[in-house]
TrEMBL record:
SUPFAM superfamilies named in the record: FAD-linked reductases, C-terminal domain, FAD/NAD(P)-binding domain
Signal peptide: 1-17
Residues annotated as domain Glucose-methanol-choline oxidoreductase N-terminal: 318-332
PANTHER family the UniProt entry points to: DEHYDROGENASE XPTC-RELATED (PTHR11552:SF115), GLUCOSE-METHANOL-CHOLINE GMC OXIDOREDUCTASE (PTHR11552)
Keyword annotations: Signal
Species classification: Eukaryota, Fungi, Dikarya, Ascomycota, Pezizomycotina
Protein name in UniProt: Glucose-methanol-choline oxidoreductase N-terminal domain-containing protein
Family per record: Belongs to the GMC oxidoreductase family.
Length: 653
């Protein structure tokens, strides 16, 4: 089973005895809090703890509070020594599991989405695949902003965010012997930071890892020496977010909380939900700072409590929960809020809109000839060979950690552009279809029904489509991803749609506004997504016929030649077999001009408010061609620098 086959079937499958971070300055009741705080951060996840760490260090005389729904837990790595490869470890950190509404255009399939419900957020439960997007991804964010982005001193293009990728992480090179054994390549120019999050390459790969690499070479896909430096089209080595010596998962709950403590001005309130941000008589544009209403999840009197804020509030609850905090605060689509009895404070129709995620179907095959003669070890050894398993467990516990359990979520992926996957002519045809939607006005019909008549949202979607059309024609801009760790049969090779055109929503639950949000993924709502899925799937299918795989008798199981050769049959297969979420939701509080349905500006301040910002994956206006962890850390780092610079200019601060 390939990397994603393992990761999706058991995203919870993890782990050995990961350490529980120490609980410095942890508060469990509102009564334990200070009278007021200079900065309050809603959400102790990937970006939230990054911001808290940097602000508390920059302003030692100012108090910082993080409010986290979850608690402090151990965070085992994805493949730390488990009982077996598919059963969850009893010490794994809890997570949200949200089931979206049916997507009619994908056969009423429902996306199942997970996110961390613990200190460290999703960085404590993800697959540890620590890649960055391509240069084109972040340049597209800047392009969407037009004149507003151009005039802002805060640049979110590649040149503007790349220093924060470097700042956020400490990359450790593999030893020369390990690098030679597996063929690892990297460029130190992509790193050079000394951030508290660790990344490295595993000192181990399964014996068959190189087989799929060679199969991609058979198809003419080149190696990229370093995929974290902006160029990403080709076969990539991807580091994992793990410590280079212990092999433990590296996440924000350790790097930006435990390792930053004890720090006298940095408090963490766990097991509390941020209900809303409220303003005084002056309203959201008045002179006073907002206050934060919270409720305890463990009793604590059973009511709502106010946290007084002297400076500002930073929402960092993630793409699935930041929008609902805003909506409960009266900041969001006016018609929706009024219909739920929420007084409208700021009409921002983009709040909870623009939901995007990676999705896609698999290609599967078996081997009919003896597989990888002499190749050893393979993952099956862990389940059938007690001696091997014991040795692997002992190797992981050694110093430095070694062996199979250091592999995390794997280190290998292919990122291919649409011109490579489908040919330049086909890529141009698909781009023309997208531009036609903008020109003939049909684009708005693919939006949620309640947003089709909102001019700003429609204008923003059209702007996104034009940017995406250009990206899909770019031979250097990835359109599909296939990650893997092993190809032991039956093989599952997924095709990630990296640039989805369909848009969904995150909304308050009308039955209970404090309950988890209602997700409507609307996967496949834009029909061009199906064109992209077909092109990607047909590209990945070519692996089976490569000389490398044919020497082992590779025989396709699905979709098969007959299905793949017929557009309608292939569409039916895609609707039936696709995962609608690879756990990369973003875009629901997008960083775009208000005139384009944006929620935050380039200083991350929520449009129409003072003293309120957002810093998490929800601000990404377009999904990058990457798993989201590294980008979310960079957002946290850049957000902290923006906030620090602004507050240092204030008199009396």
């Amino acid at each position: 089973m390939g990397l994603v086959g393992v990761a999706v079937v058991s995203l919870a499958a993890a782990a050995g005895a990961a350490r529980v971070p120490p609980q410095h300055h942890v508060k469990r009741q509102v009564a334990e809090l200070r009278e007021s705080y200079d900065f309050v951060i809603a959400g102790g996840g990937t970006a939230g703890l990054t911001v808290a760490d940097r602000l508390s260090a920059a302003f030692p005389s100012k108090n910082v509070l993080v409010i986290e729904y979850g608690d402090i837990h151990a965070a085992p790595g994805l493949f730390d020594p488990p009982t077996n490869w598919i059963e969850p470890h009893p010490d794994e950190a809890p997570r949200w599991t949200l089931l979206a509404l049916p997507s009619p255009d994908m056969g009423n399939a429902r996306a199942s989405v997970q996110a961390g419900q613990t200190v460290g957020g999703s960085s404590a439960v993800n697959g540890q695949f620590f890649d960055r997007g391509a240069k084109q991804d972040y340049d597209a964010w800047h392009e969407l902003g037009g004149l507003e982005a151009l005039l802002s001193p805060n640049k979110w293009n590649w040149n503007g965010i790349f220093p924060y990728f470097k700042k956020s992480v400490t990359f450790t090179e593999p030893s020369p012997s390990v690098a030679a054994r597996y063929g690892y390549t990297w460029s130190t120019s992509a790193y050079g930071g000394t951030g508290p999050i660790w990344s490295t390459y595993a000192p181990f790969q399964w014996a068959d890892q190189k087989i799929l690499t060679q199969a991609w070479h058979d198809l003419g896909v080149p190696d990229v020496r370093e995929c974290a430096g902006g160029r990403k089209e080709g076969v990539c080595w991807v580091p994992a977010s793990q410590h280079p010596v212990t092999g433990e998962r590296s996440h924000s709950g350790v790097g930006h909380y435990a390792d930053a403590q004890p720090r006298a001005n940095y408090d963490l309130l766990v097991r509390h939900q941020v209900v809303r941000v409220a303003y005084g008589a002056g309203g959201p544009l008045g002179g006073g700072a907002p206050r934060v209403e919270v409720r305890s999840l463990d009793g604590d009197g059973g009511g709502l409590f106010n946290v007084t804020v002297r400076g500002e509030v930073i929402l960092s609850a993630g793409a699935l929960h930041t929008p609902t905090i805003l909506q409960r605060s009266g900041i969001g689509p006016a018609a929706f809020l009024a219909g739920r009895g929420v007084p409208v404070v700021v009409d921002l129709p983009g709040v909870g809109s623009n939901l995007q995620d990676h999705s896609g179907p698999p290609v599967t095959w078996n081997y009919t000839a003896p597989y990888a003669p002499g190749a050893w070890p393979l993952p099956s050894e862990v389940g059938r060979n007690a001696t091997f398993k014991a040795e692997a467990t002992a190797a992981f516990a050694a110093t430095p950690a070694a062996g199979p359990y250091t592999l995390g979520g794997g280190n290998s992926a292919v990122y291919a552009s649409l011109p490579r996957a489908a040919g330049r002519a086909a890529a141009a045809r698909i781009a023309r279809k997208i531009r036609k939607q903008v020109l003939d006005g049909s684009a708005r019909t693919f939006l949620p029904a309640d947003l089709r008549g909102v001019p700003a949202v429609v204008a923003g979607y059209k702007a996104q489509l034009l940017v995406l059309a250009r990206a899909l024609e770019d031979a250097g801009s990835p359109s599909v991803e296939t990650p893997w760790a092993t190809a032991e049969g039956p093989v599952t090779a997924w095709s990630f749609l990296l640039r989805p055109l369909s848009r969904g929503t995150v909304r308050l639950d009308p039955a209970d506004p404090l309950a988890p949000p209602v997700l409507d993924y609307r996967a496949g709502a834009n029909p061009v997504d199906m064109d992209l899925h077909r092109a990607h799937l047909r590209f990945v299918r070519q692996l089976v016929a490569t000389p490398t795989l044919q020497q082992f008798g590779a025989a396709e199981l699905a979709p098969g030649a007959a299905v793949a050769g017929d557009d309608e049959a292939l569409a039916a297969y895609i609707r039936d077999k696709s995962f609608l979420s690879f756990m990369h939701p973003c875009g629901t509080a997008a960083m775009m001009p208000r005139s384009l349905g944006g929620v935050v500006g380039y200083d991350l301040k929520v449009h129409g408010t003072k003293g309120l910002r957002v810093a998490d994956a929800s601000i990404m206006p377009l999904e990058p061609a990457a798993h989201l962890s590294a980008t979310t850390y960079a957002i946290g780092e850049k957000a902290a620098d923006i906030i620090i610079a602004e507050w240092k200019k204030k008199k009396g601060w």
